Amino acid sequence: MGRLIRGKSFYKKPWYGSYRSMMDRCYKEKSCNYNRYGARGIRVCEEWHNIENFEKWVEENPYFEGATLDRIDVDGDYEPSNCRWATMKEQCNNRSNTLYITYNGETHTISEWAEITGINRSTLNNRYYKGWTIESMLTLTSCQGNQYTSKAQRR
Question: Is the domain of 31 the same as that of 104?
């Protein structure tokens, strides 16, 4: 059951699951994500060990439906200056293993480049790890036999 403090029931709050998961992955060794958080030294600031203080942060940084609690610096602790509510897409682009690629002065993740170029994310990922040049990876879009064409060649 949810924790009660002075008559407050937090488990019904829409953000409570994020709070509970944050605490579990940082402190419960049996948590399935402990090895990626607590075991790496990721902690929750002392202030947020009091759920009422976390609730005050939520009031200043409103939760929205579908939001996930995201650490801006993925190697930093959970603390007010390092956390935000994010969409799942934003969170996926802010992982410790996120690959950033710079081309023509623009830096984006593989997922973002997929949206920009219209090339499937898996295709871009495969090309990168097969050693393609960044230009070829991001500009060659269709394959006929063993011949790739660029958007410019198809016009």
Answer: no
Q: Coil, helix or strand for 24?
A: helix
Q: Are 148 and 140 in contact (CB under 8 A)?
A: yes
**What are the pLDDT digits (tens) for 131-150?**
999 999 998 876 544 555 55
pLDDT of residue 154: 47
Which single residue is written with the structure tokens 């480049």?
A: 113
Write out the two tokens for 133: 């040049």
Please indicate, yes or no, whether residues 71 and 119 belong to a single structural domain of this protein.
Answer: no
Split into its structural domains, the chain has a count of: 2
- The residue segments making up the domain with residue 119 are 100-154
Angle between helices 110-117 and 121-129 (to 10 degrees): 120
